[in-house]
User: Which sequence fits this backbone?
């Protein structure tokens, strides 16, 4: 037989014995000896502990069956039966129900704690997935920027090989060209593994101005302001700016549709991107997109902050300009 069923049956027998003891102790109460008086609190404690720690299948039926004996006694001898039922109700049924309630309450608390742990683990997995996805995006951006530079190196080495005056110079240029080609091929293979199953979500050469213009055409009221140096940024920094603005606009369109959005890009000693929009939400909207974005900014040596400030949801990213290294 199943050990759990045996344990449950044993608990039911113990409950029946305790209930019967409470019923019998309520008989002939005209002159109670001291030991019978002490039996009442002892029964109450034992029955409470039984309900608190020992689960019983159909415990109500067990108690009801014992109570039926008290009803039979009440039919034969009214006052004796009423006293027995009162004794059982006060010192058996009520403590047992109290213990059963405490056990169910403890089980609910434990289930709630397990649920919280599961939700925290799920949130950690979502954030980790977002960080890994952002690392894959960064690797793809590195391929787009470094692949072009390696191709130029190979091209110039080929030109040097054709115009070299000496054989040693020609061989050195040929070796340089082969090394550049090999490095390009290895970079393509490595990034190709990271790109598998992940489609590019935005045009690779899209500027921030084009991104903002597309958002405005889609109906999002957005204004872009640039201040500071106008020198073109390195590719990785430029893509980071694009991703910050893109994710901030996505959050604004999702959580505050129709609210005006302000995009400010300040290029001075550091690169500062600030995107704000009015919001009624009192807490941050940190999702997987912002988690991945924070990972990209961190890998580039910068910081990312997001939250509600003075009724406006603000995303602020600060990146060092001496950046791509």
Assistant:
């Amino acid at each position: 037989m199943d050990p759990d069923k045996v344990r449950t049956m044993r608990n039911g027998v113990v409950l029946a014995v305790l209930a019967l003891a409470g019923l019998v102790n309520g008989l002939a109460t005209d002159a109670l000896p001291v030991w019978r008086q002490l039996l009442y609190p002892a029964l109450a404690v034992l029955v409470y502990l039984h309900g608190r720690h020992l689960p019983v299948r159909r415990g109500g039926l067990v108690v009801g069956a014992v109570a039926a004996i008290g009803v039979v006694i009440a039919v034969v001898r009214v006052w004796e039966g009423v006293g027995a039922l009162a004794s059982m109700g006060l010192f058996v049924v009520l403590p047992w129900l109290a213990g059963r309630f405490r056990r169910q309450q403890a089980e609910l608390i434990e289930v709630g704690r397990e649920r919280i742990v599961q939700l925290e683990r799920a949130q950690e997995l979502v954030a980790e997935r977002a960080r890994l996805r952002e690392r894959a995006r960064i690797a793809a951006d590195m391929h787009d920027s470094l692949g072009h530079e390696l191709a130029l190196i190979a091209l110039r080495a080929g030109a040097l090989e054709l115009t070299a005056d000496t054989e040693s110079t020609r061989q050195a240029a040929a070796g340089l060209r082969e090394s550049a080609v090999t490095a390009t091929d290895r970079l393509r293979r490595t990034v190709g593994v990271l790109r598998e199953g992940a489609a590019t979500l935005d045009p690779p050469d899209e500027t921030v101005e084009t991104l903002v213009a597309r958002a405005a055409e889609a109906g999002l009221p957005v204004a872009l302001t640039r201040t500071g140096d106008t020198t073109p940024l390195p590719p990785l920094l430029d893509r980071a700016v694009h991703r910050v603005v893109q994710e901030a606009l996505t959050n604004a369109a999702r959580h505050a549709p129709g609210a005006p959005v302000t995009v400010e890009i300040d290029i001075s000693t550091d690169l500062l991107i600030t995107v704000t929009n009015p919001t009624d939400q009192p807490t941050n909207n940190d999702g997987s997109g912002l988690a991945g974005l924070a990972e990209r900014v961190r890998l580039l040596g910068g910081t990312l902050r997001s939250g509600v400030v003075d009724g406006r949801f603000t995303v602020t990213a600060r990146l060092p300009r001496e950046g791509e290294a």
Remarks:
- Residues 91 and 126 are 53 Å apart (CA to CA).
